[in-house]
# Entry
Amino acid sequence: MDLPLDALESRAARTGLMGIPTKVLAGARLTTADCLAMYHSDDVALLGILANEVRERLHGNVAFYNVNIHVNYTNWCNQFCGFCAFQRRPGDDGAYCMSPEQVGAELSNANPEATEVHMVAGVWPALKYPYFLEILRAAKAARPDIHVKAFTMVEIDEIERLANKPLREVLDDLRAAGLDSMPGGGAEVFSERVRQQLYPKKMSAERWLELARGIHEYGFKTNCTMLYGMTETLEERVDHLNRLRMLQDDTGGFQTYIPLAFHPDNTPALAHLPIPSPLERLRSIAIGRLFLDNVPHIKAYWIMTGLAVAQAALSMGADDLDGTVSQEKVYHDAGASTPEVLSRADIHRLIRQAGRQPVERNTVYEIINTFAEGDPVEELCV
Ligand code: V47
# Structure
């Protein structure tokens, strides 16, 4: 669709977004000042229109999803982050750590159509280096064809420490044991001020970025995230996105950006905070699409956005809904009221109602199935 630039710019002039429509329609890069203006503006609808333009330029009418499962292999954690409701110490109520056999069994019993397992957890030093190789081997033994997307930078940092050898050798071992790619978690927000307040034991922003760089240079794809809605300022959000964009300029290793809205329930330090509003969740998706011009995909992770926001996000910058998921624990422990699993039919319905075409992808965005309207496969899927 040809958007009327004059009308967009005169609206932008009234809502603090002057010059941004011109840059977006010309495919020019937005500055950090533009990004801050987008966070300050009340005109989320205009951000959505512009983000949709970029999203359709890149991906047309397609909305991606995959069929995946989650395995949170342990909730033991020694990081004690103030925002996390998932963490436990061994012996606490609800604390658990899965053996490699249990990880294998979880995969054997999981949806046979799943093409990806998303495997992340807390970190606890009693878990020695071989454990991490064994859970990867167990996953692959149970499901040889499944793509194993596992370990945030926080876990990789711990695994490297336990292995006590250079990152490249650790990555060699993990790859040989079955690791295929890595998710985007653990970055939280790259502000030293917020880190000191809420997650002082967790690695610094510099370390997260250094590890992501090394992992991309080694050849693994990863995703990237920002956890927002805690105590960070808007300037700190802009700085976070800018650091991701700079790294991506160098490595090209991020596949998708996932803004993660903070869920406060049961968290040690922030249970009093409100969940970011639906409008803020849509703003975060739109800004991600507009500012991260070098990241191919923007994911509306329905578990955390909620289903209605995920649907709307497909017309405000997002091109991906993540997957069918099952057994998600990190957000549900923090009060997420979304279902723990969606069927393929549920996802197709969400996408169709949003006026988009469902396309099943694998983890690295190769197309597995394209569904035409009324396709018998679609009618049959449950
Ligand atoms: O690292 C933890 C965040 C992340 C809370 O790469 C919280 O495809 C909100 O990274 N409220 C884990 N957020 C989830 C994650 C992820 C999810 C889906 C897909 C992908 C991907 C990655 O969740 C953590 C942390 O940043 N988190 N607690 C909370 N209370």
Notes: The mean pLDDT is 95. The chain has one domain: 64-277+295-310+319-370. The first strand starts at residue 62 and ends at 66. The domain at 64-277+295-310+319-370 is CATH 3.20.20.70 (TIM Barrel).
